[in-house]
Amino acid sequence: MGSASDETAAAAAAAAEGAPAAEAGPDSKDLQQQSKALDKLTDHVEDRQLDSSRVQSAMAALASSKEADWNAMRLREKELAAVKINPTDVEIIANELELDKKIAERTLREHKGDAVAAVRFLLH
After folding, report:
1. For the whole model, what pTM was predicted?
2. Contact at 8 Å (CB) between 89 and 111?
3. How far apart are CA 9 and CA 47, in angstroms?
4. Helix or strand run (H / E) with residue 7
5. Which range (1-5, 97-101, 103-107) has the least confidence?
6. In angstroms, rounded to a whole number, what is the distance separating the alpha carbons of residues 41 and 25?
7. What is the mean pLDDT of residues 86-114?
8. How crowded is the C-beta side of 114, counted as CA atoms within 13 Å?
9. In a 3-state reduction of DSSP, which class is residue 86?
10. How far apart are CA 92 and CA 122, in angstroms?
11. Closest Cα to residue 80, out of 99, 102, 96?
């Protein structure tokens, strides 16, 4: 593995020193092929500069989207908190289905206090 790279390095050094073409004969073709192969591997797509205004507008859009999601979640929580539920229904659902009371209460609020709908939801 090291000998091939040594030969390539030697051929490159000879070419750089201006050695006669007769000495580098067959190695010259190999060197050219390797050079072309290396050029193909190292061809880089031109780097594009990021437009700072586009980046800022994208970041602003993400921030406003996140804020809108947060506001929607807060509004939903307020709506659920306003739903009147019977504490006895929460106890029955939590005990019978062996659930945490918080889960039973949330499910009951999501179903607008309808215990039957909440139990059906939890069972399916």
Report:
1. 0.50
2. no
3. 30
4. helix 2-17
5. 1-5
6. 25
7. 94
8. 9
9. coil
10. 13
11. 102
Helix (H, G, I), strand (E, B) or coil at 1: coil
119, 99 in Cβ contact below 8 A?
A: no
Long-range contacts of 76-82 (CB under 8 A, 24+ apart): 80/106, 80/109, 80/110, 81/109
Pick from 121, 96, 97, 95: which is nearest to 107 by CA? 121
DSSP per residue, 19-59: --HHHHHHHHHHHHHHHHHHHHHH--PPPPPP-HHHHHHHH
Which tokens sit at 40?
């193909």
Amino acid at 28: S
